[in-house]
Amino acid sequence: MGSYKQACIHCGRLVDADARICPGCGSRSPLAHRCPSCRKEVRPGDAACSGCGRALYVDCPHCRQRTWAGERCEKCGKTLLIVCRNKRCGDAQFFDLARCNACGKKLVPGKFLG
Ligand SMILES: [Zn+2]
Ligand SMILES: [Zn+2]
Ligand SMILES: [Zn+2]
Ligand SMILES: [Zn+2]
User: Fold this and answer.
1) Binning pLDDT at 50, 70 and 90, where does residue 93 land?
2) Ligand with the closest atom to the CA of 79
């Protein structure tokens, strides 16, 4: 045992260093803020990703206000992640992606993450 654990940056719960989801708050990036497109680590407030150059400020699909591209809207608190509807994928993806970065196929937007 003795697997290495770190605190979730969103809720503080200890999670495995390679965890893909936080059991405490359900975050899909518990240990670092990541670019929704290329998954490079980014800092909240960065205007653009240093890896792929995508803008990190978007209009929230729920309240239409400007928000940083985290997992949740800074203004209304709703999730910015949708469930990929491609077969055998079902991963949570950022709502504005053209392509799912889990299965690599064109993202067919499903419902927002519950
Ligand atoms: Zn958490
Ligand atoms: Zn990026
Ligand atoms: Zn919002
Ligand atoms: Zn997918």
Assistant:
1) very high
2) 3
Ligand 1: distance of its center to the CA of 31 in Å?
9
Arithmetic mean of pLDDT, 94-114: 91
What DSSP line would sit under 9-25, residue for residue?
A: TTT--EEETT-SS-TTT
* Alpha-carbon gap, residue 73 to 109, rounded angstroms: 18
What sign does the CA torsion over 53, 40, 60, 88 have? Answer: positive
Question: What tokens were used for 83?
Answer: 């469930």
* Strand partners of residue 59: 66
Distance 72 CA to ligand 3 centre (A): 8
Which distant-in-sequence residues (6+ apart) come within 8 Å of 21 by Cβ? 27, 28, 30
Ligand 4: centre distance to CA 32 (Å): 21
What would the DSSP string read from start to end of 86-111?
A: STTT--EEETT-SB-TTT-SBP-EEE
DSSP 7: E
Q: Is the pLDDT of residue 105 over 90?
A: yes
